[in-house]
Design a protein that fits this description.
The chain is mainly beta. About 15% of the residues lie in helices and about 35% in strands.
Length: about 55
């Protein structure tokens, strides 16, 4: 599970992992990114609910 730092810039979230990778996403998509890539945010507590089924 990669660790990352979150910076909020208005309506955007800037995430930088311990490996130097960066992503910029809208705040509303933050949980999607965290769940999809199994990221741990180290500087802020973020609570995301995992989806159990996608209705496929």
């Amino acid at each position: 599970m990669p660790k990352a730092v979150l910076k909020r810039e208005g309506k955007l979230a800037v995430i930088e992992t311990e490996y130097g990778q960066k992503a910029v996403v809208p705040i509303e998509s933050l949980c999607d990114l965290i769940i999809r890539f199994n990221i741990t945010i180290v500087n802020e507590e973020i609570h995301c609910e995992k989806l159990t089924s996608r209705g496929i």
